[in-house]
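Support request, priority: normal
Reporter: lab tech (M.K.)
Component: structure prediction queue

Hi team, I submitted a job for assimilatory sulfite reductase (ferredoxin) from Nonomuraea rosea yesterday, and the status page still shows it as pending. I've pasted the exact input below so you can check whether something in the sequence is tripping the parser. The sequence length should be 551 residues. Please let me know if I need to resubmit or if it's stuck on your end.
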Amino acid sequence: MSTPASRTPASRHHKRPRGEGQWALGYREPLNKNEENKKNDDGLNVRQRIIDIYAKQGFDSIDPADLRGRMRWYGLYTQRKPGIDGGKTAILEPEELDDSYFMLRVRIDGGQLDLAQLRVIADISNEYGRGTADLTDRQNIQLHWIEIESVPDIWERLEAVGLSTTEACGDTPRVILGCPLAGIDSGEVLDATEQIQEINREFIGNPEYSNLPRKFKSALSGCPAHCTVHEINDVAFVGVVNEQGEAGYDLWVGGGLSTNPMLGKRLGVFVKPEQAADVYGGVIGIFRDYGYRRLRHRARIKFLVNDWGPEKFREILETEYLKEPLPDGPAPELPRGSRRDHVGVFPQKDGNFYVGFAPKVGRLDGDKLHVIADIAERHGSSRVRTTVEQKMVVLDVAPDQVDSIVAALEENDLQVRPSTFRRQTMACTGIEYCKLAIVETKASAANLIDELERRLPSFDQPLTINVNGCPNSCARIQVADIGLKGQLVVDEHGEQVEGFQIHLGGSLGVNAGFGRKVRGLKTTAKALPDYVSRVVTNYDTQKKEGESFAD
Ligand code: SF4
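Reply from support: The job had stalled in the queue. We restarted it manually and it finished. Here are the results:
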């Protein structure tokens, strides 16, 4: 473990850019409302108020600064009041959009769940969340319709099985992504589980790191398919083997999408597994101390990395935070295969099999989570995983159980051999619950999948379709083959209706790049299946041998 000295606040001798609100440069006075709220009281402190006051006295007793700020430190967001259309999203005051119910995000670091944990989430969903349970594209499970009165009981039940909602949202180190196959994939560079757990123990819920300039997204993985999308995390540790044959990590910083998408940058260092927590501490310390706090939309670490460049970032990390240089290291190998989702049946290194399946657009429910747990148990498995593609994986299936578990999952519409469209379409929460949304997403995406399967039954090329309800890119539109950004559009009758701006040709991996936003390329939500099937048909009929959609 690190010494405290390795994580001391930064010195103050760097050139002072004007007014970005960087703590390390002496700007301690809050420069906006969010910073003021965080300074007034740390987000982690809301937990006791929820237990002692809000859960007892009800929704109306909640302090507005807690309601729209600190609640997030425990994965709680107010839902959008039903019936408010997307045209009002930008013009109404936040309180006019707030419902008295909450979305609750359960963090699942590394996507690792045992069946007891899965069943507890299922029970909470059924008892307190009207049966809702959405798999997110960051390995969490999100519940809706949660009332403040039930939160202490929910926490007690989650915590009894080692789960938590701490820092699932907010300006904090959020869930740490990990490969769902960590420890079982015969091709993995290394198993990052221990480092994920160590970082979780040391940094999550730690008041030293609970007031960051903005959210902080992390990934650690030795996955040969690069399934944790390291290119678009704030910090990512990517498994590599150095010249001496040692397995460790290549360090990436400053990736992120949203309205100013940037790909992460390699620092060119080799991080030994036993150094990972210290290095994580250094990176998050830099973000806390040097991150821009003046403007929320420039506060993610990617802006700092972009301004400094990877060389300066590395120098500050080594000299001010780690107090020692890191050796140079290699870049990751090219990813295995053209899909990163782990859907299907594949051998584990111990002779058993893992079985990945695709619910439609990540939408499950409490009963279905119980069904998954029962099916896994009946087939001798005690572990499941969530993926970063809104999918799940059952581990440790004996060879003679594979056919039976595949049949059982498929009977429940948990498809193990889905179409490309079911497999590679994701959708964010959208207007059903999200206060920032402009359009509906989950039902539109589910309908799109059904239509594409009906119209193009033999299409089997890799093709990602990501559907977002607003420009925030929770469903990663810029790195999809077909990215759909929700907005209001004008239909053929001149009416404003829900629709999408189209981004084409984004990708991660070898040729990582953002999709092209073609000016004027928009569709109404109603015409979406026609539009996408035309695009896919054109690609399918005109592509050359080996040409991907992004090419
Ligand atoms: Fe909400 Fe926008 Fe994120 Fe979708 S992309 S979940 S609409 S903030």
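The chain has a mean pLDDT of 93. The first helix runs from residue 33 to 40. Let us know if anything else looks off. Ticket resolved.
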